[in-house]
Amino acid sequence: MNKYSAITPEIYSLAEMIRKNCVIDQDLYQKYDVKRGLRDISGRGVLTGLTEICDVHSYTIINNEYVPCEGKLYYRGIDVEEIIDGFTKDGRYGFEEVTYLLLFGELPTEDQLNAFIKQLEFYRKLPPSFVRDIIMKAPSNDMMNTLARSVLTLYSYDEQADNISIENVLRQGLQLIALFPLLSVYGYKAYRHYRFGKSLVIHPPKPGLSTAENLLYMLRSNKQYTELEAKILDIALVLHAEHGGGNNSTFTTHVVTSSGTDTYSAIAASLGSLKGPRHGGANIKVMQMFDDLKEKVKDWTSEEEVSRYLVDLLNKRAFDKAGLIYGMGHAVYSVSDPRANVFKKYVKSLSEEKGMQEEFALYEMVERLAPEIIARERKIYKGVSANVDFYSGFVYHMLGLPKELYTPIFAVARISGWMAHRLEELNNPGKIIRPAYKCVSDRKPYVKLKDRTENNK
User: Which of 250, 301, 372, 447 has the highest CB neighbour number within 10 Å of its CB?
Assistant: First the structure.
């Protein structure tokens, strides 16, 4: 470890001061009615803004009370399940159509969709030498950091980087939507090459292919993929494209946009949010948890053995000892996550194509057992169900995608939602977003340095 990365004894000592001096009494949150995470005790979000882009529906009102119901997700008022049924029955890919809907507020005609796809293809080209000079230099162990750095560097190539007119921000957004697959895949290829000596093969995107197809085409050395693989990846992109203005990364987009900053800074901030294991990084945790489960549980068909492992997870005796069953539960959904329900139908088909039915059966068993075990072992205020991350990591695994790209692929999808929200924030200008924090520290006098030194002797 080099001197820049080493944690010195002095740092450890200073860190202890933070642990000692920066602790807030947890009872004060209830005393001052502070909604931690901007959510109440039932999990409902504190209203901080208005949007027309997406509705996450998880409660119904009966006799003036909020009652959990089956989850629903609407893009611009249209049920996402209907959207997916529509384009899959037509044998089409849907991510580009959904991106159009999110950005412009209406579904495109065939001519409008074809023109939009051509526009994305036009922008799907990085500046000259960008791969060599930016992506290939100082590759990071984490592709989200590589992606954020690339986005921030694109600022230097944009002669209108700080122009926040709707027209210019839309142009920037379309370019980023088009470039995210390239930045993600090329960043991963550079990482493999320089860290592990793997061959460096860079495939340019192919005109006429969808975003999902191009991801597989650019990533695989032989450029080959099956129709089912591409279509399931496309559905994954659609399901991850948007999830309302209140999710952590999209709220970040709104907060940073409200300051009047440039597009590249706003999106880099959103990427930083999405990287976190409580948000976009959750699907990696699900996969790592299942890897540990498959190693520790000898009989994958035994409900008793699997249940014992899940109890150990909750009691911090298994996996990362965090006390969590990753992929179970959601900040908004209680009864069901509609994205997980939709995804599950296609996951089964892919598991059959890949000969991984045993793994799929194990996922189904954990999905069924976990809510009962969580309810028994923990005091909870709302129901628990599988979220979209529960199955997405398994899908990416079956597609042969490296774990390093799981969260960047989430970003490839969510950039559409982020840009829709950035444009909405700019088109409906208001005040800078600045929620209140109540200071609960005691008043104390300033003590001179000399006296402090004498007192510590």
Answer: 250
